[in-house]
Design a protein that fits this description.
4 helices, alpha+beta, 4-stranded mixed β-sheet, single chain
Length: about 130
């Protein structure tokens, strides 16, 4: 039986979700952003307190582009899954900052999971590069 270390933790806990209205509002008002098709990525850092919190993310799929809730939910599920597999690219301990990220899906077409995963990985690599290099 093998033990999974924290570096390979592929879970997505509630503490990793950005869900407080105040935090979301602050992210959209004070955060920086970039666009990498099909995502608009809004991010913000804050200094780490005494306890290390995981980075937090918000996933948004506009109702204007996908009228049916099952379609929006499916895309959000794809994005969450991709994030879950690639979140180790940004390690808050190495960054010495907590990161809040919002992913806004901007296209009006569904994309295959493998393509979404590659695109999300590129966004995380870009964020990593910005904060470490």
């Amino acid at each position: 039986m093998s033990v999974i270390s924290d570096n390979n933790d592929f879970s997505f806990k509630k503490s990793e979700r950005l869900h407080h209205r105040k935090d979301i509002q602050e992210l959209f008002e004070k955060g920086s952003s970039f666009y990498l098709y099909p995502f608009k990525v809004i991010y913000m850092t804050e200094s780490i307190d005494s306890q290390i919190k995981p980075q937090q993310i918000l996933i948004s799929v506009p109702k204007r582009k996908f009228k049916k809730a099952p379609d929006r939910n499916f895309i959000k599920r794809q994005i969450r899954e991709a994030y879950r597999h690639h979140k180790n690219l940004i390690d808050p301990e190495k960054l010495s900052k907590n990161l809040k990220i919002a992913y806004i899906y901007t296209t009006d077409k569904k994309m295959p999971s493998d393509v979404l995963s590659k695109k999300l990985k590129k966004t995380l690599e870009r964020l990593h590069q910005e904060f470490t290099g």
